[in-house]
Amino acid sequence: MAAKRYELNEAQWSRISSLLPGKTGDAGRTAADNRLFVNGCLWVLRSGAHWCDLPERYGQWKTVHRRFSRWCHAGVWERVFAALTADRDNQYLMIDSTIVRAHQQAASGKGGPGIRRWGALEVD
User: Fold this and answer.
1) CB of 116 within 8 A of CB of 122?
2) Per-position b or e across 101-123, b if 16+ CB within 10 A of its CB
3) Among 29-38, 52-61, 69-78, whose mean pLDDT is lowest?
4) Strand, coil or helix: what is 93?
5) 8: closest CA among 51, 37, 48, 50?
6) I need a labelling partner for 50 at 20 to 30 A (CA). Which of 6, 39, 84, 98 fits?
7) Whole-number pLDDT of residue 124
8) Closest CA to 12 of 83, 68, 70, 64
């Protein structure tokens, strides 16, 4: 079965499945749907859609978002990223430039008397 758009394929899933909580033997509840949950998170993050637009096949968006937030606070995602980036066989790393933002005033340069900003004259 081929992976759908934005979802992990078998090789990718096998690399991270052991790093995620909810395995048999872990304290607490055993997660039967870790892969579905991770694919849902990837769908939102890769598509740029709002959580409320998450397709129903991944579950209720509030539940998925709540679990995503819990994993963020517990450091689960950081452990996964650390393990993946520590792998010397990793073929590429990339950063999504849409998350790199400058402050809104960074585009206006050094200010001073008589500089027009936001449609009004700025005065000292």
Assistant:
1) yes
2) eeeeeeeeeeeeeeeeeeeeeee
3) 29-38
4) coil
5) 37
6) 84
7) 46
8) 83
**64, two tokens:** 């998925």
8 Å CB contact between 36 and 17 = no
**Torsion of Cα atoms, 92 then 77 then 57 then 67, to 10°:** -170
Tens of pLDDT along 60-88? 999 999 999 999 999 999 999 888 888 77
Please enumerate in sequence order all residues whose Cβ is within 8 A of that of 43, keeping only pairs 6 or more positions apart, or say none.
6, 7, 49, 54, 55, 58
Q: What is the mean pLDDT of the chain?
A: 78
Provide CB contacts within 8 A for 111, sequence distance 6+. 117, 122
Contact status, residue 63 vs residue 31, Cβ threshold 8 Å: no
Q: At what angle do helices 61-74 and 34-47 cross, to 10 degrees?
A: 90
Can you tell me which residue has the tokens 């400058």? Answer: 102
